[in-house]
Amino acid sequence: MKMEMATYYSLSAAVLLLVISGTTTTLVTATDHIVGANRGWNPGINYTLWANNNTFYVGDLISFRYQKTQYNVFEVNQTGYDNCTIDSAVGNWSSGKDFIPLNKAKRYYFICGNGQCFNGMKVSVVVHHLPSPPKAAVAAEHSPTKSASPPSVLLDWGLCSLMVSIVLVRFELNWI
C-alpha cells in the first residue's frame, strides 16, 4: 500500500508539473521579426515602412536574411545610421542568417556595411518594454469577487486547476 501511495503522489506531482509548465510556456512568447519579410535584406526596399508595420518588444529577435557573400549587418548608433558609416559599430554579423536579440527597450540602428546602406539597406527599430498585465487582471487578483469575464491569463490558470483536479480524482479512484 505504501508503494502504491508513493507512486500515486509521484505520478500526481509529475502530471501537475506538466500541466502547469504547459500552461505557463504559452503565456510569454518572443517574436522573430524577419527584416524585409519575404524580400529579406536587399537594396531598394523601404525598411522604414517595414519597421513601422511591426511592434518590437524586449526579448524579441530581429533576423536578417541575405546572401552572405554580398551583404552584412552592422549595429551602429544614430550618427552611423544617418551617415552610413560603421565607425560607431557595436556589433556586426555576416552569416546570411543573423538572429539578433533585442534585449533592451531602446532604438536600435542597423546598416549594411559594404556601401549598400546608401541604397536603402538600413533599418531602425524601437523596442518597447513588455506590456503590463491588463488592469482588470491585477484588480481581479486583489478583489474579493472576480469579474464575470476574467482575462485570458486567469482563464489559463483556472483551466489548469480544473485539469489537475480531474487528473487527481481520476487517479485516486483507480487506486481504491
From TrEMBL:
Per the database record, which ranges form the Phytocyanin domain? 31-129
Listed A to Z, the keywords are:
Signal
The question of whether Cytoplasm is a record keyword is answered with no
Signal peptide: which range, if any? 1-30
Supply the PANTHER family for this chain.
Answer: BLUE COPPER PROTEIN, OS09G0557900 PROTEIN
Q: What is this protein called?
A: Phytocyanin domain-containing protein
Organism equals Stylosanthes scabra
